[in-house]
Amino acid sequence: MRRASRTREYQLGASTCGLLRYKPSVLQHELASHYPELRQIRSRKQLHASALWAQIGDEVEGLLRAVERGDRSDARPLDKLRAVAWNIQRGTHFEKLRDALLTDPVLREADVLMLSEVDLGLGRSHNRNVAKELADALGMSYAFAASYLTLEDDHLENPDQTENTLALAGSAILSRAPIKRVINADLPEVRDKFSSSEKRLGKKRAVIAELEMTRGTIVVAQAHLDSNASSRQRAQQLSALLAQARTLEVPRILLGGDLNTTTYNLGSKWGLVKDILHKLLVTGFDGTVTNYMTPDRRYELPIFEALREAGFATTGLNDRALGTMTYDMADPYTFEKVRKAVGGILARWLVRRLRTFDGVVRARLDWFAGSALSGRDPRVVHIAGHATDHDAVVIDIDV
């Protein structure tokens, strides 16, 4: 059966928006009535063979390649650039996140925000347009790139079972400088998200933006590589992202985001078991915990090789003394996530074994890398009160 032609152009059209002086190109759709039927379909093969997909498939695929933009007419080229890369955990704790960006002495001086895990119309984040609302609060332009139409929430993410509206999840770049060209970058698919515990249509993508500076332009590429993958698969995604950033033909490129350098292969249970056995028998428990802070030395080598091959460096752009994510086994949410991944027996053993570390493990998952640029004063900013499960990474770029 041939799909009905329902493709829409999601980046055309502009309207003014009051005192905020936005000219938004807003993502909208009327697919919500189909969510219950989509949830009942078991596999992607069944989905693609269905009459429903013939009806809505073109529209869904167009939507998941789209970019929503809000460009401020008062944006001006910058002669400095403080970049912040932050996995904001869907924006579920929006008020804490917004307040941190407004009041923290480091974050409030940000010129560009490179945000992972950004929701638009999802019940777990109160159906907010997270990127737009943050941009409104901060007086910034924004570009949101959709990756997924989310049909079911991940474990423990939506305890009130609030229904989704637009149900879009993706990444965003917010900027005080004018945003010129934007790419919703297509990355290699390493796992079928339609059959995962968080049932989704779509695949991992990334957002790339060209920003106007007083001396030329700079490209910023926001990355959020797949956690349910091997390091080699993450490296393939990273290489694809960097290649698309190069198509803008701007020498200066800043990559920032959650590279998910966990040192584990979460792409399969067997891959995870092999990783755990190798760490326990070869690296040792204490060495394994230490390696979470230095993933570039052993277990995540393919990612850093991909950066070097593409002409990118991490030296001088990252505060290597601090982790960017903390696993506290005393936290019920953290324990439950670990228990789900490795089972109850191993999770309880980890609690006992980590007593010598006060039950806390720190890891470095979030990074900056640059091509044809240099940076100063790299920092990791921790916001107390669970604004998100990651810390923000910050760098001042010489422009």
Your description of this structure?
The structure is a single chain. This protein is an alpha+beta fold and 399 residues long. The protein has a domain at 73-261 and 300-324 and 364-397: Endonuclease/exonuclease/phosphatase (Deoxyribonuclease I, Chain A), CATH 3.60.10.10. 28% of the residues lie in helices and 27% in strands. It contains eleven helices and 16 strands. It has helices at residues 35-40, 44-49, 51-63, 94-103, 130-138, 231-246, 269-283, 285-291, 301-309, 332-342, 344-353, and strands at residues 22-25, 67-72, 81-90, 112-120, 141-150, 168-175, 179-186, 200-202, 205-213, 216-224, 253-258, 325-328, 360-363, 366-371, 375-381, 392-397. Helix 4 (94-103) runs parallel beside helix 5 (130-138), helix 6 (231-246) runs parallel beside helix 9 (301-309) and helix 10 packs across helix 11 (344-353). The protein is globular, with a radius of gyration of 21 Å. The N and C termini lie far apart (54 Å).
